[in-house]
Amino acid sequence: MTYKIYRVEDTSELDSVPVAVIKDYPLEKRDYKPYAPAILCRTLPSLILRMWAVEVSPPQGSELLALLGLFGDGTAPLLAAFTPGDGFSLSLMAKGGAARHPLPEGLILTPHSGEDLQGIYWGGTAVIPLNALEKIGGGFSLLKGSAFPGNFYKLCPGPQMAHQGSFFPADFKADPFSPGSMGKLLVI
Q: What pTM does this model have?
């Protein structure tokens, strides 16, 4: 399975981009599997990430994550995290944990929450300048035909409504952020 990253002119075109729906909840014994879509695309100067979850009351610790192996061999991927309200962070994962980075200059963050026919939702859109990503992790390519590993996650540690879901199947019993738990993200 491959997720395709398309180029758009701006955020007004996000409704025309393929959606990665997080629906693989392998450890879920109940039927609590929040609907959580993600969109990843690019403009000429930026990478756009939009993630949201349909949850009436997000449990404490609830988060939406995008793991993007943009840099080098993908072994130190970028981790973008949304939390309910206006929370957003960028981290570079390396052996021994994640090194959190200050939000880059030029980042446009638009948290959103509300209610529609699907239910009550929360999430956000981050427009991250490509030059800011280079400062965080080094060089990378988003040219047509390039690919890198990645995955999208909906996580909540609990104790109430604990769940772990992903777009590509992930090994939640061992390391859901390992290279074996990532799929292919292809730039179109």
A: 0.94
